[in-house]
Specification:
Layout lengths: L2 E4 L5 H10 L4 E4 L4 E5 L4 H11 L8 E3 L3 H5 L4 H14 L4 E6 L14 E5 L4 H10 L2 E5 L11 H8 L5 E4 L9 E4 L6 E4 L5 H8 L2
Parallel strand pairs: 1-8, 2-8, 4-6, 5-9
Antiparallel strand pairs: 2-3, 3-7, 4-7, 5-6, 9-10
Helix pairs in contact: 1-5
Length: about 210
């Protein structure tokens, strides 16, 4: 049975961190939609994310981070430098940047395994959790291809008993982040969202 915890609980970040460290899968609010999270170095926990969502492994899972420095440390250094202007302008916020992954990281996020989707959400709980446990593999808390969850109740109903802990916060807007592929030149918009993808791409161009 899924444990339920209120977002305003005094120890919510620590409780989420403990569940993640124990190999758990957690539903939590972000600044866009409800997400379902696991530690990216925990292969078994991330596999549960793919299974719960019914998601193919060639649709990789992004990571949410506490701040830009934590996020860009996961990217190949030269690519991270090119992304700093976009990070400074739109993080924290609803922009996911796909960057070449720094060598030597043991992250289980799906394929391809040489890139990583990075985001710093504008949400204090997610940032606090990422400060405690490091970057968190997170995807929208819904079955793949189905409408996103805007409440914790919707998320748990969609994903079932495979969720260990669910954090209940307010109803969310329900618009997923903009996704920009920053691996090619020029950058490409993979999904438009609250941040205009064209503006992100234009900022990268010399």
């Amino acid at each position: 049975m899924t444990e339920v915890l209120a977002e305003d609980d005094a120890r919510v970040a620590e409780r989420v961190a403990d569940a993640l460290r124990a190999g758990g899968v957690v539903v939590l609010p972000t600044d866009t939609v409800y997400g379902v999270a696991a530690l990216p170095a925990d292969a078994a926990a991330v596999e549960r994310l793919f299974s719960l969502k019914g998601r193919r492994h060639d649709v990789p899972i992004a990571v949410l981070c506490a701040d830009a420095e934590q996020a860009l440390a996961l990217a190949e250094p030269a690519a991270a430098e090119r992304a700093r202007a976009a990070a400074a302008r739109w993080w924290p916020g609803p922009l996911t940047l796909v960057l070449p992954r720094r060598a030597g990281l043991h992250l289980h996020l799906g394929q391809p395994d040489h890139t990583v989707g990075l985001r710093v959400p504008d949400h204090p709980l997610v940032q606090a959790v990422a400060r405690l446990v490091g970057p968190v593999a997170t995807t929208s808390a819904n079955r793949h291809g189905q409408p996103v969850a805007v409440t914790a109740e919707e998320a748990v109903a969609a994903l079932g008993d495979g969720v260990d802990l669910a954090v209940v916060g307010p109803r969310l807007e329900g618009r997923s982040s903009t996704v920009v592929d920053a691996t090619p030149t020029p950058w490409r918009v993979l999904r438009d969202g609250p941040v205009p993808g064209a503006e992100v791409v234009a900022l990268e161009r010399p």
